[in-house]
Amino acid sequence: MSIAPKHIEQPSVLYMDGVSVSFDGFKALNSLSMCIEPGEMRAIIGPNGAGKTTMMDVITGKTQPDCGTVLFNDQHDLTRYDEAAVANLGIGRKFQKPSVIESLTVFENLEMSLRGGRSVWQALRHRLTAEQQDKLDHILALIDMTARLDTFAGNLSHGQKQWLEIGMLLGQQPQLLLIDEPAAGMTDEETMKTAELFKTLAQHHSLMVVEHDMDFIAALECRVTVLHEGSVLAEGSLASVKANDKVIDVYLGR
Ligand SMILES: Nc1ncnc2c1ncn2[C@@H]1O[C@H](COP(=O)(O)OP(=O)(O)OP(=O)(O)O)[C@@H](O)[C@H]1O
Ligand SMILES: [Mg+2]
Q: Is the pLDDT of residue 125 over 70?
């Protein structure tokens, strides 16, 4: 099976064209088309049920679309990969609920993520290489948890658990990070700190961030895509989508 040709010329890390997904006849995605440029951070907003999470399910091989093109780096047809294979290509996904192991320390959780694929027991018995140790130190600094190395993950705040989980994703060196509602349940201070973290991550990764918190979206200072009923309703700067009458009607309110 050949890959459908792209209709635009600039390179993209993620390219979706005409993607549809139906659940019992209901179109969760309806001919969705969107591109993310290499190194770009993109915020995705839109009402409940707009298809934001379903879009991430399609990108990560969890849900097979009825039709449409989904390309990674203009060469990998993601609809032909399963979830593990998509992760191996360099796409990391963070779900809303943190999945850190609460009975392990911050250090042990990160250590484990650096060795992906091993069981907890195997991972813990195995010593890190000097390179892995450097990477771990770098990640700890990025997520501002160097001082919490020995804290059990179960004793972290909700925000800290989220940051730890993002740190664990970074262990796999993903090129593209997909993050669904990271600020949900965070304090205002944690939310703003998360925005700063993402801006730092955007220096070395492409990011797609779904969120309802508009202060958080504003702090990301990036291009925004508004989804509605499974397609793109508007796209551009936050100021431009906020001023868009259709967006005001279906999402932001008057
Ligand atoms: N596995 C599924 N089976 C049936 N319907 C589904 C399934 N997954 C999603 N849907 C439906 O598809 C639509 C889009 O859901 P989705 O979770 O993608 O929305 P969302 O934009 O992420 O919303 P929210 O902001 O509430 O997270 C919703 O109407 C939802 O009920
Ligand atoms: Mg969702």
A: no
